[in-house]
Fold each of these.
Amino acid sequence: MAQRYEIRFSGAGGQGLITAGIILAEAAAIIEGKHAVQSQSYGPEARGGASKSEVIIADDPIDYPKATLVNACLALTQEAADKYAHGIIDKGVLLIDCDLVKTAPQGNFTLYQLPIIRTAKEEIGREIVANVVALGAMVALTGIVSFESGEKAVLDRVPAAFRELNKKAYRVGFEKMKGIL
Amino acid sequence: MAQRYEIRFSGAGGQGLITAGIILAEAAAIIEGKHAVQSQSYGPEARGGASKSEVIIADDPIDYPKATLVNACLALTQEAADKYAHGIIDKGVLLIDCDLVKTAPQGNFTLYQLPIIRTAKEEIGREIVANVVALGAMVALTGIVSFESGEKAVLDRVPAAFRELNKKAYRVGFEKMKGIL
């Protein structure tokens, strides 16, 4: 693993991206024993519809938790892509929802596309788990935690009644991403 | 309001302190238009039972999101008080659950005590809303957002079926704190 790895989840408010960030941080820290900082930073733009959540993962203590250079970014909506898909390092990765982000940001990173919201709706049957589909895809894309650590962190965090739904969402997201890597 | 105000919520994992932090940040930023950063930092101690969540609120953009000097701290358990009730500024405030924190941390801050968990259990009927009782108390203690902004942020964030329960928990926490100020 790199010394420090930063992941940004962006989309619309209400899509559960803060939860996705928390689950990833807990997978890395509580399950895999790394250091992690999870944060959301709200400025004047917070009143708009776009939302973001950031996770920094490192082997050593993290002195400066603000995401400055992003290794991997997710954008579920066009507005989020326009606002938050920046600061990605050279050779970093950007995953967009290809149904909703029609104009992909340009940069010296590798662009990946999946129909994340549609997958949640049509294959899992609940749009509300799009965040966990996205989390599974980002775990597959980055390899920053193992499939199993991410799955355990999902199951530890979601209410008991929704465990099977979220477990399926996570696995489907992971497998869809693996299919295009 | 001070240039920069930092609040730390600490307790045990599963007590919903991350959610309390997110709600406070959303009250300050999305509702009141301030800048806010909400974060959780996980180190090797994350495997233990103690958990913390931090919020920084400011009128201007926040450059350095890591909480370094805490204006107001909450500790719901003895372990959290021992681990996380430090770095409080001179003349800052510390609120502890007086049933669970038997040995209060010492420092040049003002100590407040409320039976937060017991209030959630006995007056609201659900221990799970202890985080929102605590949030109401911290809003009353700090005045960092208005009662109404905090209440709206609670209602925006919790599932519809639990709105009345959380609204009551928030109000009771707020009023209990006002009663001892």
Amino acid sequence: MSNTLGKLFTFTSFGESHGKGIGGIVDGCPSGIELDEEYIQNELNRRRPGQSAISTPRKEADKVEFLSGIFEGKTTGTPIAFIIWNENQHSTDYDHLKEVYRPSHADYTYQQKYGIRDHRGGGRSSARETASRVVAGALAKLALKKLGVEITAYTSQVGHIAMTKTANLSLIESNVVRCPQPEIAEQMIQYIAELKQEGDSIGGIISCMIKGVPVGWGEPIFDKLQSRLAQSMLSINATHGFDYGRGFEGVSLRGSEMNDSLIKDGDKVSTKTNNSGGIQGGISNGQDIYFRVLFKPVATISKKQNTLDIHSNEVELEAKGRHDPCVLPRAVPIVEAMAAMTLLDLWLSKTPEIL
Amino acid sequence: MSNTLGKLFTFTSFGESHGKGIGGIVDGCPSGIELDEEYIQNELNRRRPGQSAISTPRKEADKVEFLSGIFEGKTTGTPIAFIIWNENQHSTDYDHLKEVYRPSHADYTYQQKYGIRDHRGGGRSSARETASRVVAGALAKLALKKLGVEITAYTSQVGHIAMTKTANLSLIESNVVRCPQPEIAEQMIQYIAELKQEGDSIGGIISCMIKGVPVGWGEPIFDKLQSRLAQSMLSINATHGFDYGRGFEGVSLRGSEMNDSLIKDGDKVSTKTNNSGGIQGGISNGQDIYFRVLFKPVATISKKQNTLDIHSNEVELEAKGRHDPCVLPRAVPIVEAMAAMTLLDLWLSKTPEIL
Amino acid sequence: MSNTLGKLFTFTSFGESHGKGIGGIVDGCPSGIELDEEYIQNELNRRRPGQSAISTPRKEADKVEFLSGIFEGKTTGTPIAFIIWNENQHSTDYDHLKEVYRPSHADYTYQQKYGIRDHRGGGRSSARETASRVVAGALAKLALKKLGVEITAYTSQVGHIAMTKTANLSLIESNVVRCPQPEIAEQMIQYIAELKQEGDSIGGIISCMIKGVPVGWGEPIFDKLQSRLAQSMLSINATHGFDYGRGFEGVSLRGSEMNDSLIKDGDKVSTKTNNSGGIQGGISNGQDIYFRVLFKPVATISKKQNTLDIHSNEVELEAKGRHDPCVLPRAVPIVEAMAAMTLLDLWLSKTPEIL
Amino acid sequence: MSNTLGKLFTFTSFGESHGKGIGGIVDGCPSGIELDEEYIQNELNRRRPGQSAISTPRKEADKVEFLSGIFEGKTTGTPIAFIIWNENQHSTDYDHLKEVYRPSHADYTYQQKYGIRDHRGGGRSSARETASRVVAGALAKLALKKLGVEITAYTSQVGHIAMTKTANLSLIESNVVRCPQPEIAEQMIQYIAELKQEGDSIGGIISCMIKGVPVGWGEPIFDKLQSRLAQSMLSINATHGFDYGRGFEGVSLRGSEMNDSLIKDGDKVSTKTNNSGGIQGGISNGQDIYFRVLFKPVATISKKQNTLDIHSNEVELEAKGRHDPCVLPRAVPIVEAMAAMTLLDLWLSKTPEIL
């Protein structure tokens, strides 16, 4: 099933950019969790278009409506369905794209695979689908909070502009680009504004830090914690890479530099360094889990591009829709949501002990 | 299920480094495929320890014995079980490790998760498990060959030493490090030999090229082609990262540089560039699929390391087992095997058309 | 996942009897199928309460609203979400049940399992949930029609009153009890009316006939066609048994009587008898598939019953809600829907041939 | 995956009747369970051919060899692979069947589905495959024992000869037909002996009683406890039906007779009757779980039968292999094994509580 994530905590997603709405069903959510609607809406707001000068001018309320699984304000253990109704769609904006394959979009592959596609705003392949993930992820976060787990993502690089210091996580929301190093954030914002002016776009890297996962989450072999995180992250639109712990930047480290010595930390076992990113043999080791996700530049740009239409005619394309020059600031809550669902599912899948 | 990969073409793996053997069951393999045992054994030989001066001196025949699913030399559509019997195990080599948690190994996490572990040679967490994947992957490759798909991986970087030219795939097996640029291969071999001398280890990058996948493989949303490849690759021991198409190295590209324009190639649709790595919206677009996998340095080194034992005593560790200073040359067929199983599964999972 | 059925054609269900609505997501539906809304609504109408004098007087429009996956009247291969909004709920009818465990209902088990439950109308455990199955099943039926498969269920027994002739499938809808033997139907209707008068309820048997399945559907071992059908049927509320081909009634048959000899039927292979119900070794053999499903009497009755409340006090219960004295007539389309989803999923899961 | 059962406690089966052996992999078994090999072998012996005058004269040692997942006599939480090597195969007994489709066997359906089949002794479709299930089920039983759950099956009917009293479970193993009512057992044995003489075969019913399951096992909707049990039971070769609680025999009961009133049993909640078979809304309610499984007569008989060969020629068939006239006595441990795996999987799949 391509539209379901997870094994015990599952999320099944539906909806198109310009259909009635987008939404999904969360199944396997533990019962008795208070539905903090304000918290959930706030997560959605962090992803919402039109939230700042550097994002798309498209404005959508993105109000979530829960349809089931909640009784007297609490989860009941039954499936939680929800919908975000579409509004403010300018479907006619896309009429000129009905027969065009946009470069580096899914138009051509969907058309070939299914023989039919909803071309309006990218239809099912639109990044609007990720709003549903944020809702489901917020539910997972509420459950994880009870388990003491906290997930925090931030923009660490935009194009060539990268952070130069360790992240102070409290500063993430201090700027619109969600980079916790304000002077670098300033440069990023400036750069994005320039590219917007030029009708171009840029990608970058989102980093994520997870605190509070105890030893033992993740399964050996094919459901390794990093394996499941990689799958989740690469399922986000526009992502092109993933690494955890010391990643590609540390490729020249030797074993003697990379290995994390086990040490005593009071009564507990800890490690001297954490180059492994909190995972050994696919299983959490109690240290912080951290990873990076690479995003390519948004494929929709305002510059002229050569491409083909569905009749294989060569055509020239100039985007008219409203789009982001850089998707990263709005993708931060999506990365957190995917991490949350993945972790909660791995927690639920742990074999209970038999005494 | 942590030990099963895939949905329709599934591989379930079993075995420990120093138990009776390792093996698995391939389910969902199409019927009527000729079992080319020589080909399969050759794939195993490419992964086998002791194959060159820069790999572990451990020698294992690694002969695969098929137990079911084959009749008169062909697959029957029923499950194909196989085993590689363990031999030449020096289990007593590991007696001194029975109570020690080796740095950056899975000893501590397994012990905490299960309350029991087979410490001999890493037990289930040993990279020896990947030999089974090579067998299952070879079966998938035989099926993919019939579909015109060819998967080729190679070592593109060892520590700081990286290839500088486009790969000439015909040169991969021309040297023991499996790098298709001979002068760089020479440097890699030299560097690995030095590290071996020092008792240290090194990681690097394996690149993979897949030719012949038609449009339409991979599913939107959570089973995107890149998503499933990332999961598969990050499930290989010692991997720390994955990217596809233009990856981390191309983070500063703009949309106007990254986008792949669709063009006509005779009767067919092609793209001018292939920065997307052959995938759009999670679905293959008919272009070459390529990706990279990051491996950390082998955790087992001969240098002295500080660590803890299971009683939380601080101990000093000096590895005695036989190990590789650099795992990449032997990991090349594993990357190919995982890619093959993933692709075949996605092909089988495609919804057939109803006319 | 307890709320998802199937592997490739999947249906995920949501909703409670007295919440906002019930619905679900169909994933893996082939693209290009015309959405015949009239047909789908008609299927729902066959299940709808209040359709005849022998069913509950509760009246619900049960209009389905599709939320996604349809473009210009056709399925697109993306998830099809839908909802049936609840209306005409008399939630206060259930206030007296808030703290009571009704006999042979799921009140006690839900409360113990989840620590919380929506008591209104049975909440999630209400048979109202099956309306969603009818919608999803109607989609599956539309796809199966294109493959030449026709599924027809009917009431063959109510209490002790059983059909005495082979079913003439064209007569099923000729009476409100959906029994294709009119004189028996008359007795059934009479008997149900009597029980209604007494405030009691009755169960019975629904039989199902499937025509047009070619050889080869169903998988050996654990996904046998009969195995998957049994699972689907026993997931319907109030079912207590399943048999296929010659079932419990034929327990005294010998092998020489039960075996189906293969014979030639023109160019085709057929069988002389069809005691196997169209299935050999878990795989369809091209003959008609037929099976029976046993339903217990509805647990909600108007007679006084002794039971406990959530504080373990003994209480006396007299149902006030509006309920059916016999659920079978309305369950006929549910049996068909479950069979349709199961068959389509097995068709999709068949390994394609490699030439 | 047709050869894998379960979600968290999974069993993947392999092997053919006349190949190297049969076996499987159990994944998800809790760690720390003592491997009682004598117990497991005893379970196998209960299923073994040649154990009495009324079963096949074929003699197979059926010794199980464990290949992985066990360390120092205990399960480690890693996959447990095992094999039962084939021996005493008279493969040439089956030469005359190479091109024949036996009536009511899987020969024709396998050939059509896969285009190839191992005809020797039925190949993959042989009931010999169920020996692997007994091993895996024995592991599940060992785990369930720790949870206080006891599963006991017995032969309750052979052809027309049915038990007339409530089962005294302690008498099951007192006779070769495994019927706990000795005077009825005598009649069954007599009847089977007669049919053997005639070269014919007979089916019947196996009943199963499960004690000790607490409230809360099983999931609402599609993974109902009865739904999963039905799937498991109908996956056993030769089964044709399943019912639980009051089943087909109680079809004429009214709601007022069928409903189980909740009562106090000291401090605990119990029910006055147990017509529901220990399950409400798909979830165990703490009462005894009981169900019945219908077996058809063995398809292999010594009488002459008309059939077709693979060239569609009409042929006359007389079985030469060694076979059972009645499979039920040997199927008793298979029913228990399937029930055990199903229950343990449902226990593992329960969502843990978050405090």
